[in-house]
Write a structure and sequence with these properties.
The structure holds two protein chains of two kinds. By secondary structure, chain A is mainly alpha-helical. Chain A is built from eleven helices and two strands; from the N terminus they run ααββααααααααα. The N and C termini of chain A lie far apart (54 Å). The chains are: A mainly alpha, B mainly alpha.
Chain lengths: 278, 293
């Protein structure tokens, strides 16, 4: 009887501890977001969002950095999507089970595992110096593309694999070619999944710093073309905080960055929901 | 559409799939091209085990030894795992075995958000809150291995939870039911059946977390102090340290082309090798379980 009791007690204690660690995770999250919100919410207003920084960012706003981030994410997404979705279509619908396919899969895994700072180094040596793109939106965007490409391939692959085999086989049985099946059956059905993956990918790209530090440059001016340097939000935040330029501005920048990531995630969730309810 | 067009599109799909191979090959090529000369000049041994990093020597020869940085990287990574694994695994158990539906979706959303927080924001949080907190309450200058480990632990938590939860879910339901049917309590089942069953998966997750932590840059950079020397004494986690990633990012800004810049690319090679070995180990463990089940 005693043993059963003690087993019951330890069961209770254990459930409590397990629940406690789950609560800890949520509390850490809320604390971080809350702390930054409380300290920075006073800074964020329309002037902050739409004004140019003055005195190296100690005053004024962060408009060029917002534009810079959006440009970088646009270049990386616009290049990652055709390549990534193309690769995913190939791997799911065409690839024979041979050595080349295995090497492709292995390379995707490798690329996903490469630390962002190494991709940044490579971007500097290859894009900035070797190809002569200089510190520019193009260099930074392409370097970010290298980083999000594996993610784009894998999420698109999953979305395509989730398309029911019956649909695909039905299309092929009706005499459609492989390409027709991919275009009219597989891609439309996989579109919501692919879109969700792509949007989450932009969320990863927008917060990335090490990749763009030595590829996109750190100009605080508005870019005029894709060959101009920009300073993205995360890099701006890093400089503001680590060089002690202005904690206040840094909090504000952090809120804007967090806000963008949050909005991107919410959009992805909304698309997923809409798709699931269909 | 005719056969020829089909063929063209098939080839271009194949081409986009090979992009990954090309990019990885280019990354290796350029890292080696830029980093190998200094490794050959100094010797891999001297570079990796050298104790002094002094790239801009005012008097005498500059020296490039990254041993303190290798130790720094491993130090903060292990520290982060010590802090993140127990609550992470416990949270995974709770998520899969205990939590009611509403708590499950709450935790899942929370994990997704935590993953989404950019590392530079976490680093900033560490800089403004954690560093002063450590300085005032525990001692040292605040910028420390401890601060780096805590911030990395926060970053590692979501990954450890996700992978452990997958491993726990993969334990066959029949095991669990058999244990409960024999009269074991839930905790006894978790301790005696589920954890041993999920052990390899959890280990794989921990190794992967180690790789991620070693490769992480911004968050660590902002809170560890970045002095390129070994902590003194070695076990003092309140001392500052510099990781390999931080070394690259800090010095790329002013490194002149030549030995100094090459030494940073060589640091990248060492970093990449360490992360690759850890990732391969983790994949090996995961694929072995995949085969077994």
């Amino acid at each position: 009887m005693n043993r059963i009791r003690s087993a019951e007690i330890s069961d209770r204690v254990a459930s409590f501890m397990l629940g406690g660690s789950a609560a800890l995770v949520i509390l850490i999250l809320l604390y971080i977001i809350g702390y930054i919100l409380i300290h920075g919410v006073g800074v964020v207003n329309l002037t902050f969002l739409l004004d140019s920084p003055r005195l190296g960012g100690a005053e004024g706003g962060i408009f060029p950095a917002i534009v810079g981030s959006l440009c970088l994410v646009a270049v990386s997404t616009l290049t990652a999507v055709p390549i990534g979705v193309g690769a995913a279509v190939y791997l799911t619908s065409y690839a024979p089970d041979n050595t080349i396919t295995r090497i492709i899969n292995f390379s995707v895994e490798c690329l996903a595992g490469i630390p962002s700072v190494v991709i940044g180094l490579f971007g500097y040596a290859f894009l900035v110096v070797y190809l002569g793109f200089g510190f520019s939106i193009l260099s930074g965007g392409l370097a970010l593309m290298f980083m999000i490409l594996p993610w784009t391939v894998r999420t698109s692959e999953e979305a395509i694999k989730a398309v029911s085999a019956e649909l695909t086989e039905g299309s092929l049985a009706l005499g459609a070619t492989k390409l027709q099946t991919v275009r009219h059956i597989i891609l439309p059905s996989a579109l919501p999944g692919i879109t969700t993956g792509v949007i989450l990918g932009t969320g990863k790209a927008i917060g990335e710093t090490a990749v763009i530090m030595y590829t996109a440059g750190s100009s605080l001016l508005l870019p005029g073309s894709i060959f101009d340097p920009v300073r993205a939000l995360p890099y701006h935040l890093y400089i503001l905080a680590s060089e002690g330029i202005s904690d206040e501005m840094a909090y504000g920048t952090a809120i804007v960055l967090l806000g963008m990531v949050l909005v991107i995630n919410l959009i992805a969730v909304a698309i997923q929901r809409k798709f699931q309810s269909r | 559409m005719n056969r020829k067009a089909e063929r063209v599109i098939e080839v271009s799909l194949f081409a986009s799939a090979t992009c990954a191979i090309v990019i990885v090959a280019l990354i290796l090529l350029f890292l080696i091209k830029e980093g190998a000369p200094i490794l050959l000049k100094l010797g891999v041994r001297n570079f990796c085990l050298g104790m002094t990093w002094n790239p801009i020597a005012i008097a005498g020869e500059p020296s490039y030894g990254i041993f303190p940085m290798i130790v720094g990287s491993i130090y903060v990574a292990i520290g982060s795992l010590i802090l993140a694994v127990p609550p992470g695994v416990a949270c995974a158990i709770f998520l899969v075995e205990v939590a009611p539906g509403w708590a499950q979706s709450l935790i899942r959303r929370g994990i997704e958000l935590l993953v989404g927080i950019p590392s530079v924001v976490l680093g900033f949080f560490g800089l403004v809150l954690l560093v002063p907190l450590i300085r005032e309450n525990i001692g040292g200058c605040g910028f420390s291995i401890l601060a780096g480990s805590i911030i990395l632990a926060i970053m590692a938590l979501p990954h450890i939870i996700t992978i452990s939860a997958d491993a726990i879910k993969a334990v066959p339901a029949t095991y669990r039911e058999a244990s409960i049917a024999l009269g074991a309590t839930k905790w006894q089942t978790i301790k005696g059946i589920i954890l041993p069953g999920a052990r390899s998966g959890i280990v794989a997750g921990v190794i992967l977390g180690m790789g991620n932590s070693i490769g992480e840059t911004m968050a660590v950079l902002m809170v560890t102090g970045n002095t390129p020397v070994l902590p003194e004494p070695l076990y003092n986690v309140l001392e500052p340290a510099r990781t390999m990633t931080a070394n690259i990012v800090i010095e790329m800004g002013y490194a002149a082309p030549g030995d100094h810049q090459q030494a940073l690319f060589a640091t990248g090679i060492v970093l990449l090798l360490m992360v690759a070995v850890l990732n391969l180990m983790s994949h090996h463990v995961l694929s072995r379980i995949g085969v077994e089940r």
